[in-house]
Amino acid sequence: MNKRRGQAAFTMIEMLVAMAVATIMILFVNQIFNTARSAVSSGLGVSKIIQHARIANDQIDRDAEEMVGPTAGGMLIIGNKTITGVKLKSSDIQTPPTRNIDQLMFIRYKNDIEPVCPSNDNSVANTSGAPFVKIWYGQCQRTTAAGTDDGALGAAGTSNQYALNWILGRQAMFLEGGSVSGNSCTDATETSNVGGAAAGFYTGGVTKQAYTALADVCKWSLGDINKNATSDTVALTYTYGTQRLRVNATSPGGAPSGSQLAQMHPLFVPNVSELQIEFAGDYATGTTNSAPPDGAVDTDASGNIKWYGISLSPPGVTALTATNIAKGWVFRKTNAAMWPYMIRIRYRMHDDKGVVPGSDNQPGRWFEQVIRVNRS
Asked: DSSP code of 304?
């Protein structure tokens, strides 16, 4: 009679322990993978933010170096405004901060830049003989894909609802003067957007063509700019004080129309939730906040430079208001002695997902740039 030999096998307990160990190892490996993926994603986000900041800083520097001072008829305008209750993105649950949505405008010499709006329906390029260019920086309002208005910054149910979608725009408006023949367009979309049959890739001043970004060549000269600015209040409109510069950030499917190309031209850098413009100069005596000027840049009791803007007004300079501007500062040839010495530009930039934090542990990183003002 053969005896049955015992067969080795795992017990139920051993099987459960093995499965538990395997599960823990899988979870551990998955955690490592997720951590690595998050680190790579964060690194790419930081790299993209820094890249965009370098582009912005470089362009701002180049524009500032060509700034026209008051003696040559230059004009410098700063518009301050804050907005509340606007979330960075839809998933935010915390109370959103007060956000700065300032604007900056000044005149520069043309030198080596050219218009980017097409010169006609069948063109993707343009040239200008203008000696001067009006430069504008600020957060743009996104349009619909068709180029029509899609609501103000922060407006619910629009592409401008969340601050992560806001675009820092730059517009270079070439002050051609006189006739700008050849810069015309018959594109139906553009004609509809500007509300008239006389639509074209040029503007006769601060018109709808200008602030809807359908033009970057102006029939006004620098002399016209100064002559037509009959008051500081009128001059404030050159920052689009009653409007916001539009931008069409939608990638066109197929061949873009002339108006689509035109409305893309202010697109500078994306994902800028805040823009703060301040200025420093000689407006007070010593560390006081009282006139007259004493020949030195104003400082506080600790020796720090006083930066004027939305929070602090300089003595002797009247702040103006407009629909999109809580405090507007206009510097022209008529008040050359009041021109600031420096302008400080601060902006908070984000990655596409709005997750990269800054030094304050809030989403986005602050960048700061100080430019010298040409006061001559």
From this structure: P
Distances (CA, A) of 169 to 4, 103, 159, 266, 291: 86, 10, 16, 5, 36
Burial class (CB in 10 A: 0-12, 13-18, 19+), 358: middle
Q: How confident is the model at residue 261 (pLDDT cuts 50, 70, 90)?
A: confident
CA distance 219 to 48: 38
Long-range contacts of 37-44 (CB under 8 A, 24+ apart): 41/353, 42/355, 42/356, 44/351
Averaged pLDDT score across all residues of the chain? 85
Q: Provide Rg for the chain, Cα atoms.
A: 27
pLDDT at residue 221 in the model? 86
How far apart CA 143 and CA 235 sit, in angstroms, is 26
| Angle at the Cα of 87 from the Cα atoms of 81 and 89, rounded to 5 degrees | 130
Residue with tokens 């582009």: 55
**So what's the pLDDT on residue 292?**
86
Helix or strand run (H / E) with residue 133: strand 132-142
Contact 374, 111 (CB under 8 A): no
Q: Give the predicted TM-score (pTM) of the model.
A: 0.85
Residue ranges of the alpha helices (H) in 144-301?
188-194, 208-211, 222-228, 232-236, 258-263
Left, alpha or beta for 240 (phi > 0: left; psi -120 to 50: alpha)? left
Pairing, β 167-175 against β 99-100:
unpaired
Average pLDDT over residues 135-145: 93
Cα 210 from Cα 206, distance rounded (Å): 6
- Are residues 305 and 298 in contact, defined by beta-carbon separation less than 8 angstroms? yes
CA angle 348, 353, 357 (to 5 degrees): 50
